[in-house]
Write a structure and sequence with these properties.
Number of helices: 19
Radius of gyration: 26 Å
Strand content: 5-15%
Largest sheet: 5 strands, mixed
CATH architecture of the largest domain: 3-Layer(aba) Sandwich
CATH superfamily of the largest domain: NADH-ubiquinone oxidoreductase 51kDa subunit
Length: about 475
Amino acid sequence: MIDPEVLEEYEAKDGYKALKRIAEEKISQEQIIQDVLDSGIRGRGGGGFPTGMKWKFAFNSKNDEKYIICNADEGDPGAFMDRSLLEGDPHAVIEGMVIGGYAIGATGGVIYCRAEYPLAIKRLNIALEQARQKGYLGKNICGIEGFNLDIYVKEGAGAFVCGEETALMASIEGERGMPRKRPPFPAEAGLWRKPSNINNVETFANIPWIIHNGPQAYAKYGSEKSKGTKVFAITGKIKRGGLVEVPMGMTIEDIIFKLGGGIQDDKQFKAVQLGGPSGGCIPKHLIHTEVDYDQVNATGAIMGSGGMVVMDETTCMVDVARFFLDFTQKESCGKCTFCRIGTMRMLEILTRITEGKGKEGDIELLEELAYQIKDSSLCGLGQTAPNPVLTTIKYFRHEYEAHIRDKKCPALNCKQLLTYEVDPDKCTGCTVCAKKCPVQAIDGERKEVHFIRQDDCIKCGDCYSRCKFDAIKLS
């Protein structure tokens, strides 16, 4: 709605009015924190911890040096929403950080943003300089005596683990991005071992609206335990992908079918993976689940920063688990043994199953490893990495069993478990399949029904993709 590089356009949409109100009415730090608590807003970065409570902890930590930090480094599909906010409305994030900085008594601020977002970084730096020139950053901000705060952008290298707050702070300090033991928590000893508060992009962007319109106005939206609105990034087998902002408490069904337009090619909805690479898969029979922190967590998934990957009947859930675990395994920082090695062992088992080499006991071994990894990892990456595996086993165990016992993929997705056969009723004997087969595994004379020798077939799929008469069938 605005030009993000023009401060006056943000101001025309009530921008910085919340900050000015704090200055004009001399609203205390305690009252700001209480308003945030009363609004019911919970962290939009994944854990869903009450934002006001987090601010209160940092406020109560007495120190002459404190930091307010914005985590703009989340790497799941929901991070597209964070990037869009930074690119399209950077001043909202900055104003939210300034208000948060005032509330906790911060003396410095950092926006940790992945370097892969060059436009976001450019517009953030433009907005920060504009805010300094207008007195929204710097010394005695908006005339508030003694409130001195500046914010700078720290570019990250895109490590997924740096979405975890202690790893993020280590990266800002110039160390390798690896999580630290807690306690002490960041509110007591965070950046440079000083009291710090970290929230994500969407959380900060909500703060000015709450202060300007009042906590009760914000709390009118959402469900009983999850207030306000949430932005979701919908992707996958959906007709209309993109970003949607909905009140907390809307059902998954309404988001996918009313806002997303339903499933591509009108196929059957199968599951939605919610919460990013380490989120869980919610099946069709739970499609009426409301998107609030408690209900989503009850399914085994997590809210994350709002990524929704929609899947249809052609999706193999074992392969989905393998795909997401491959990502988290590569992104593990390696500090915790169970995360470093356990996820690798799980990935090896899943890969073996999708290749038709699964064996009895693999499912139980996956579950055993998953719970050990969750219980033995320092940070949220390891604690949630097994979620795609655990939820797919919970809701789609029959697919795992079909892969292991029958050597079949019910979704006809895993290449090594497919059987290519010629349908004699449709084959015209055109010989195209035989000519294109790279291993000459197809026999048959011209204008006669052809035959695929299964022992020689390498399951490349060339015959299936090239047949113009749909005479090659999969099973």
